[in-house]
From TrEMBL:
SMART domains the record matches: AAA
Pfam families: AAA (PF00004)
Keyword rRNA-binding: no
This protein's UniProt keywords: ATP-binding, Nucleotide-binding
Gene3D superfamilies: P-loop containing nucleotide triphosphate hydrolases
Protein name in the entry: Uncharacterized AAA domain-containing protein ycf46
Ranges for domain AAA+ ATPase: 253-388
Organism: Gimesia maris
Source species, domain of life: Bacteria
Length: 494
């Protein structure tokens, strides 16, 4: 449902306070103006620079830049049987004023009698507590694939400038989530650089856009599954799920996986390699960046980040160490902010309709609430155990080649080593120009430093999680603990 349809319904139902969230004010104003002409509604617009603008009036008749005067000006447009609308651009900047809030409250209430509609057009939703029940929020959708294709055709007017078939689909995939202006800039930049529209320039601009938002980061690496040893069952599961033909029914799309393991077993690396393997961008959501100092800011940033993820579909969304991301779930110390953010994320995880494959990683399952891993939030919960002998050999071979080491040299004892520790040993050997046996003296495996945590995680995953290395359920038998040394009590001392 587009903005015109929603706005028409709300105006006819006499919703006198409407908040439109949009980063494309020109496009939104154009659509609103066309709607008002079709419906024969009176329209006025206001911003701090140009002041009040009423179509049909000269500049001499236009009121100045006083926000209070702009609110009251809508009453001058009232007709006996008509509807009057005033659009206040970027009016969230003035919501800290008690006078402005009171004037808006009175105008919205009075609008029920004379059919005057106050529309706030802003890139963010920051409604004061006094006005929360008076406004309805409408989102101005970003351009869809058809609109992006139309923009591309308008930019690429010469023969050979516009790709076709699968190449065009890659361009549209890359440009998903951009505004109309951003898409135009990206397509124009691609024409200047390469003479035709390609996805590379679009990805460059998209990366900059995400950096400016500060909510998400985009990963585009060259490593695929061939650079990741082991995890055979997990690789096969995710690749088959994501390489199925495109499905129009959101209910049939893959949703994602939850990865549990001790640190250093390749969870994050797997997620990055997955994007390259299936041709999807990897979006990294750092929950720490969502936290804000103002009341309600963290929750709003969470919703904004999830909207951006939806807009950038198809993609892979990675949330690393999710148990730490929402560490304040008990509500202590943050007035329940973490709980509300987590609730928003859970709702989106279960209900989102976009083609987003979510990969969450966790090192401590005890900190995750039971509802997080229920069915339909994830397609599977996998446990990544410490690598076995065959996997370790693959990892050794990979990193020995990467760091230019002698493949014939003796390798150290690697019992209970993770892939990260093997990489660390090879990196140190190359950095310090020593053998692997010498570098091994500088590596302390996590199975030693956090032995209790590793065993506890294995015990929990036993029979509950899928095995990342081989098809089926993960099974693990805890080795029998050695009995404590008995102390013989002597009956006598000679």
């Amino acid at each position: 449902m587009n903005i015109c349809t929603r706005l028409t319904e709300y105006v006819r139902a006499c919703f006198t306070g409407i908040w439109i969230e949009s980063h494309e004010h020109h496009e939104a104003l154009t659509e609103i103006a066309e709607l008002c002409r079709d419906e024969q509604w009176q329209l006025a617009t206001w911003d701090i620079d140009a002041g009040l603008n009423i179509p049909g009036q000269s500049e001499a008749e236009v009121t100045g830049s006083d926000p209070l005067a702009a609110i009251r000006a809508v009453n001058a447009l009232v007709t006996p049987d008509g509807t009057a609308i005033i659009v206040l651009q970027n009016f969230h900047r003035f919501m800290q004023s008690a006078e402005v809030v009171q004037a808006l409250s009175r105008q919205i209430i009075a609008g029920k009698q004379n059919r005057t509609i106050v529309v706030v057009l802003s890139p963010v939703v920051q409604i004061p507590t006094e006005l929360e029940k008076m406004f309805v929020v409408v989102e101005h959708d970003l351009p869809d694939r058809d609109q992006l294709a139309e923009i591309a055709r308008g930019i690429a007017t010469e023969a050979g400038e516009l790709p076709e078939g699968n190449a065009l689909q890659l361009v549209l995939d890359a440009s998903a989530g951009l505004t109309r202006m951003e898409a135009e800039n990206a397509f124009s930049l691609s024409l200047v650089r390469q003479g035709c529209i390609t996805a590379d320039a679009v990805w460059e601009l998209k990366t900059q856009t995400l950096k400016k938002s500060g909510l998400l980061s985009l990963y585009r690496g060259a490593d695929d599954f061939s650079h990741l040893g082991g995890l055979t069952a997990l690789k096969t599961f995710c690749k088959r799920a994501l390489q199925q033909p495109s499905r129009d029914d959101p209910r049939k799309r893959p949703r994602g996986v939850l990865l549990l393991s001790p640190p250093g077993c390749g969870k994050s690396q797997f997620c990055k390699a997955l994007g390259q393997e299936v041709g999807r961008p990897v979006l990294n959501l750092d929950v720490g960046n969502l936290l804000g100092s103002l009341v309600g800011q963290s929750e709003e940033r969470t919703r904004q980040a999830l909207r951006v993820i939806d807009a950038m579909a198809p993609c892979v969304a990675m949330i690393d160490e999710v148990e730490k991301a929402f560490s304040g779930l008990n509500g202590n110390g943050d007035s329940g902010v973490s709980s509300r953010m987590f609730g928003t994320f859970l709702s989106w995880l279960a209900d989102h309709q976009s083609d987003v494959f979510v990969v969450c990683t966790a090192n401590d399952v005890s900190k995750l609430p039971p509802e997080f891993g229920r069915s339909e939030r994830f397609d599977g919960i996998f446990f990544l155990d410490l690598p076995g002998r065959e996997q370790k050999n693959q990892i050794w071979d990979q990193y020995i080649r990467l760091f230019g080491l002698n493949p014939e040299q003796e390798r150290p004892e690697d019992t209970d080593w993770t892939g990260a520790e093997i990489r660390s040993c090879c990196r140190l050997a190359g950095l310090l120009e020593m053998t692997l046996l010498e570098a091994r003296l500088n590596v302390v495996p996590i199975a030693v430093t956090a032995a209790e945590s590793v065993e506890r995680l294995r015990t929990w995953a036993n029979g509950r999680c899928l095995d990342a290395d081989q098809p089926g359920i993960f099974h693990w038998e805890s080795p029998r603990r050695k009995s404590r040394r008995s102390i013989k009590h002597l009956s006598s001392i000679n």
